[in-house]
Amino acid sequence: MRILFLSHYFPPEGNAPATRTFEHTRRWVVAGNDVTVITCAPNVPHGRVYPNYKNSFFHKSVAQGINIIRVWTFIAANKGKGRRSFNYLSYLFSSIIAGLFISKPDILIATSPQIFCGCAGAVLAKIRRVPFILEVRDIWPDSIMAVNAIQNTFVLNWMLKVEQWLYRSATHIVTVGDGYKKILIQKGVITKKISIITNGANLEQFKHDQTKCKNGHRLICSFIGTLGMASGLEIVIRAATHLDSIKDSAIEFMLVGDGAEYESLQEKVKKAGIKRIKFTGLLNKDQIRHQLSITDICLIHLRKSELFKTVIPSKLFEAMASGVPVVMGVQGEAAGIVEDSQCGLVFEPENHLEFCDRILQLKEDHSERTAMGKRGRTYLEKHYNRDDLAAQYLEVIENLQEKIGS
């Protein structure tokens, strides 16, 4: 098949949507398909185009058999609202134009958020008269409302209407978990129109190390991911303050990554005089794998919200692949995976005292930490292997093609 995939993000960007799209599409090429991805010049999160790339109107390249078309966008950092909105809108128009000047695909996929990428897919699929799969990795605008990122009622109502239009326009919807599927059904999408393809991890890229005791008497707890509003990382500051008050000096926190809250968190840590919290800034994939290799426990946390009970953070799978036990501050499906796999401990989101209790519990039991890491890796191999997930996704595409063809 000729598969056209629209994604705002793509490697060398290392965020979750870029990784998911690349890991699936490269396997579809190996399976014998002709895959084209329309994306932008890599620039996340700082809004600076990466070295050796240009923000040109139409640039073609090939990587691991994937045809990559990079289109011009209004470049903006991953923070604020106005400039980022122009960035999203410019991709909408550029990707549609680019999609008109390539061979007609058999099927078109667009991944959302951001929501304008989904809109581009819907419009382009209608013009080219091809089936359209909308990939829903987050529920917009619900997730925006959950963190009060936008409070303008007119804008939110408009986004809700766009969301409903996208669901109606899609021939089929692929989402990433049961919780999201339930929300989509509540929003009026019929069950048979939805398939679930979860996130996962490439097992070949992450080494399972069962000798996690490389830091002497210190225990390193790392949060690895976007330091954004939804992550609620003030909990780390409160936890560190509590550990200072009980004079436990053996636990250190690493905040690995960048995002809208990066500078604010740094300022709060400095103002509080906390020494046990360190920031690494943005790391590439190799550096993240190294960080995982020196991490004793991974923190996974989102702000307390009913919506976030449906979220399964992709960082969970990378921790499991690396054999690192987790402390999970996300309720719902994500907590269920941790409990079912026995790869870590769960605590109530935003509850820093419970978070500290879980860390202190694991600190005292090195053998259990090792066992948790091993169980997580084994569970991932069985349920969240990228090879299997890409094959399942391709089967959804093929079944849709057969149904339309008949």
Can you walk through the features of this model?
It contains 14 helices and 14 strands. By secondary structure, it is of the alpha/beta class. It folds into 2 domains: 2-200 and 385-405, Rossmann fold (3-Layer(aba) Sandwich); 203-383, 3-Layer(aba) Sandwich (Rossmann fold). α10 (315-321) links the parallel β12 (297-301) and β13. The longest helix has 20 residues, at 386-405. It starts with a strand and ends with a helix.
User: What is the string of SSEs from the N terminus onward?
Assistant: EHEEEHEHEHHEHEEHEHEHEHEHEHHH
CATH architecture of the largest domain: 3-Layer(aba) Sandwich
**CATH first level of the largest domain:** Alpha Beta
Binned strand content:
15-25%
The stretches of 5 or more residues where confidence is low (pLDDT under 50) are none
Numbering strands along the chain, what is their spatial order in the largest sheet? Answer: 3-4-2-1-5-6-7-8
CATH homologous group name of the largest domain: Glycogen Phosphorylase B
DSSP summary, beta strand count:
14
Per DSSP, the total helix count is 14
Give the overall average pLDDT. 93
The percent of residues in helical segments reads 40-55%
CATH topology of the largest domain: Rossmann fold
Query: What structural class is derived from the secondary structure elements?
Result: alpha/beta
Note the main sheet: 8 strands, mixed
**How many structurally independent domains?**
2
What Rg is obtained from the alpha carbons, in whole angstroms? 21 Å
* Broad shape: globular
